[in-house]
Amino acid sequence: MAGTGIFTEILDGEVYKYYSDGEWKTSSSGKSVAIINPSTRKTQYKVQACTQEEVNKVMELAKSAQKSWAKTPLWKRAELLHKAAAILKDNKTPIAESLVKEIAKPAKDSVTEVVRSGDLISYCAEEGVRILGEGKFLLSDSFPGNERTKYCLTSKIPLGVVLAIPPFNYPVNLAVSKIAPALIAGNSLVLKPPTQGAVSCLHMVHCFHLAGFPKGLISCITGKGSEIGDFLTMHPAVNCISFTGGDTGISISKKAGMIPLQMELGGKDACIVLEDADLDLVASNIIKGGFSYSGQRCTAVKVVLVMESVADELVEKVKAKVAKLTVGPPEENCDITAVVSESSANFIEGLVMDAKDKGATFCQEYKREGNLIWPLLLDNVRPDMRIAWEEPFGPVLPVLRINSVEEGINHCNASNFGLQGCVFTKDINKAILISDAMETGTVQINSAPARGPDHFPFQGLKDSGIGSQGVTNSINLMTKVKTTVINLPTPSYSMGHGFISRL
Fold this sequence. Notes:
oxidoreductase, Aldehyde_DH_dom, NADP, Ald_DH_CS_GLU
């Protein structure tokens, strides 16, 4: 169970501790932050409400620890990461349990997230050893007007302190996708977990602690965003911010100084369905893409743009599959579970009511109990409805009927988001042309949008983000190039003649 066994030391009575200087500590604030179970709507856990002074201490320690860590051989960094990955996977059960309780993720999917996270850490360790173990050697005479009198050696060096802020929906996986690249690259890491998902993150951090990473190198600060959020993101000790979430990321980007930013801020992922598409394949992917984890995924299908001639048939196929989705508690591995909070449920309901008032066709009866919203397919949605543009982050999916491919592309590109999209057709030539025209970071052909495998590049355009994720891209973003130039008194060419005379 969460907070027991090897995790006993991370709990102080009813409140989970925060992690600093290689120790689990209680905040001097004497306050805690409640984590509400989305299913029961009752307090499930409590975490420390850390102070700004504790943030300052963590940053001071992180700066100091990073200096030593940067001198640690790559193979040793990788060895510790592999060890942390193994400990994480060995303890998947209690960590998955906390995911079930604090974000209502189905039990089976919670275990999958933890195992996937362990695999990501190990892959990152291996990739880091390869790409950071190589540099570049440049010769000056490759540029016009120069003799071979300069040898340029380049390598990748760490940035310093990386601040990682993962979201509630994948708190473990999207934390380690930031932590592992930062550490293998020689950085120190300060983690600010989401409130919903904080306990899962604390368990995960303990796995790194048990692996034996140096004190101060990894920290995990919990607390209210209103009290320490801006203080963290604007802290002068921070050299890089990796954030996954929503509109908060835009605010962070405006306040952060001259530091690298890696941000994924959501999407309105469009699914364009052509007349020649395999509609059974489309329907299966709409269910998987639109309703997995109750639609609370940045890469969920958020709007279906289907050619009018096949719309009736597709809607009927999707309706039949929606009817088979199970609804209930995450402990029972139901397909649809409670959304993360009451405010989220209220927002989703607002979008539904707006669509109802404006004449959308309800393919199912709208039903809600607390934070639990039954899956809903909305047909005949028009562009004047909010749900045609806004991201519900819930089990509600709009269908817009289109009369041309251009109409679908235009709707996709009119969005302020540009994370992912997908197109279904049997004509690969059309698929490539549509993919090129869609203003999104990724386009999936004949499959629903998805983040992963975790080594694939993952990025968004427009308000969907800055920078690119994926193991290799994250490592590169969390390093900078260092150049050393050797200047020779006279030109020197390999195997050249006249060596003795030049001396």
